[in-house]
Amino acid sequence: MERERLQKVIAQAGVASRRKAEELIEAGRVTVNGKKVTQLGMKVAPQKDKVAVDGVLLTKEAPVYYVMYKPAGVLSTVSDDKGRQTVVNYIETEARIYPVGRLDYDTTGLLLLTNDGEMASRLMHPRYGVEKEYVAKVEGIPERQLLKQLEAGVKLEDGKTAPARVKLLSLDKRKQTAVIRLIIHEGKNRQVRRMFEAIGHPVIKLKRERYGFLTLAGLQSGQARQLKPFEVRQLKKLTVIKPS
To answer: Considering the domain 131-211 in this protein, what is its CATH number?
Structure first.
């Protein structure tokens, strides 16, 4: 009987991403056949072993995938202890979906949600180079040399960013603002905002317009749609390592 890592089984059940599943294990919230597991590395037989998270037995859900146009003032989480609106409040489904990565509270635009933890983990991993395209309105008008710094990578407290593609879309000399397109393939916390802060041009407004091949076409703010089968196949192709 084939055995798989415990965190992978939890992720495939739609409970959380693989990384979050590891945190659940280490926090002592997972049991296998009634026994608490706190060490990573355990393998289980999904068809035989009884795995539970917070006392609830896992049942593998059929994978679902949604693309959403996230509004400002909405949290990219499943729930909030302060009762604030979260992205899952906008989607009617029985599946236990959660966002793939995050968009800041005030950031708008494209967000993926799924119960496929394995796929979510792969999409968020920088090794697969999945592009994310943002449009930012920033304070001031950055000089070309500063934009080249963004292209080459800027130093942040958690490391230097990978090379990016940058284009100045428009500027307003009277208001001293600029609109810039930035394409990256990483997903550091608040990365885009911190990149612009690093060159001295803080973000005023930020929107993610593309994730891989997916765009916001046909969606209004607050709307979501389920991905079509061919889109799911295309999404999975993005997480296949390209030969060097």
So the answer is: 3.30.70.1560
